[in-house]
Specification:
Length: about 130
């Protein structure tokens, strides 16, 4: 066997393994965990993966849709200061946790209120 072929194959396998580790290593949160308001409020999204584990259930269940801002605060606690997100076009933002994708940076739950003051949409955004 050609020595260059063997070395090239080993390098390619090492690079593939490293790429796999980066992609799967960033997903430290336990996926599919049911949303729990007490647990959400008990942790800080900046230093815990608990919110990341619950975010898919929270968004997919549409639990927040139709709720007032006060009802959202009762479930999720106080949002991030508005001034930080005033150009983002959302009314309330919550830190969910460090991003699950390839790019570094926190993920946020973005809550958009209707003219009537009820939640019309929620989305997960990465900063």
């Amino acid at each position: 066997m050609n020595k260059r072929f063997v070395v090239g194959t080993l390098v390619a396998l090492a690079l593939l393994g490293a790429a796999w580790g980066v992609v799967h290593g960033t997903k430290a949160a336990e996926p599919g965990k049911a949303f729990d308001a007490r647990q959400w409020q008990a942790v800080d999204g900046r230093s815990s993966t608990e919110r990341l584990a619950m975010i898919d259930d929270l968004v997919q269940s549409n639990l927040l849709i139709g709720k007032t801002a006060e009802e959202v605060r009762d479930l999720l606690g106080d949002p991030e200061p508005v001034s930080y997100f005033e150009n983002a076009g959302f009314d309330m933002m919550y830190v969910v946790g460090e991003g699950r994708g390839l790019l570094p940076g926190p993920e946020y739950l973005a809550v958009d209120l209707s003219a009537e003051g009820t939640v019309q949409s929620v989305d997960v955004r990465q900063d």
